[in-house]
Amino acid sequence: MRMAVRVLSTVLTALLSTVAVLGFGISQSLSEQGSADFAAAMQTSIQDPLVQQEIQTELRTGITTAGEQLASRAGPLAGLAGSGAAALADQAVDLVPTPRFQQAWQAWVAVLSTGLAATAEGATDPSVQVNGSEIVIAIEPLLAPLTGDSLAGSVTGLLSSLDRDTTITATTGIDLERLLVVGGQLARWDWLLAVGALVLAVVTVLMGANRLRWLGVVLLASAAGCAAGGALLTTASARPSEQMPELSRDVMTALTEPWVATALRGAAVLAVAGLLALAVAIVVGTRRGGEPRTA
In the listed set 148, 175, 202, which residue is the last one of a domain according to the structure? Predict the structure, then answer.
């Protein structure tokens, strides 16, 4: 009976350790440094020609669709509104490969990062909505920095009419909304989860004989849990998506990379500590004239 309780306690300790380590990683990604790392990763993303093509397609589709909707309300000016939207779409698409656009991209990525963090914290953001697997981002924060110097003055007036309902939608391969909400909860309770895992580990070790041996087992089980958590996140972030797959993959990778890195670092530390504990247990048992006794 004691063995069964000890095994169950070990499993629970490993689970708590895993979610605590992931919580620390998520807290890091929601910090200022995490936002800076996310921005740097996404700045690399926009250099990819495939991502540029996806952005160009979405810009043209979003602006043209918004222009058609505006034209339907413009009455006698419908033709002017439609041609203005087409001109704006052409200019915006042509700007995508340029350094000027990449500066606007930085501002847009900051909006995206803030919106994802808001979802994790249970808040809302007017420019970014996460609905299930979809990320819906307003176009306006991307185009606004380009007005004046880069977009012709005859066209920029139309931009004020293309409100925040004009969006770009990227579809991830997982339920990102749920992942962010759960991740936010783990980040909020990371220290409490860590303390709970520590207390449960102490109880498991002190429950019976061969304490060093069981300490090693608990640490190795926790290491395995952290490694599995990191592997699952890596697999989830790489799942193919239907809409803007290249951008979606880069967003998921930039978002979850701190989580995975923290999980793998935690797994490495716990594994080393567990192996040391088992080695000491073997040495101590040998010096006493035999192998460590089983529980």
Answer: 175
Whether 185 and 235 map to the same domain: the answer is yes
Whether residue 63 is found in the same domain as residue 155: yes
Q: What's the total number of domains in the chain? A: 2
Confidence of residue 270 (pLDDT cuts 50, 70, 90): very high
Q: Domain of 160?
A: 42-175
- What's the rounded mean pLDDT across residues 211-227? 93
pLDDT of residue 156: 47
Is residue 221 one of the residues assigned to a domain? yes
* Tens digits of residue pLDDT in 228-258: 998 988 887 777 777 788 888 899 889 888 8
Residue 75 scores a pLDDT above 60 = no
Does one domain contain both 55 and 107?
yes
Q: What is the pTM of this model?
A: 0.80
- Average pLDDT for the chain: 83
3-state secondary structure the chain: CHHHHHHHHHHHHHHHHHHHHHHHHHHHHCCHHHHHHHHHHHHHHCCCHHHHHHHHHHHHHHHHHHHHHHHCCCHHHHHHHHHHHHHHHHHHHHHCCCHHHHHHHHHHHHHHHHHHHHHHCCCCCCCEEEECCEEEEECHHHHHHHECCCECHHHHHHHCCCCCCCEEEEECCCCHHHHHHHHHHHHHCHHHHHHHHHHHHHHHHHCCCCHHHHHHHHHHHHHHHHHHHHHHHHHHHCCCCCCCHHHHHHHHHHHHHHHHHHHHHHHHHHHHHHHHHHHHHHHHHHHCCCCCCCC
Q: How many of the other CB atoms lie within 10 Å of CB of 160?
A: 10
What number is the average pLDDT over the span 87-100? 82
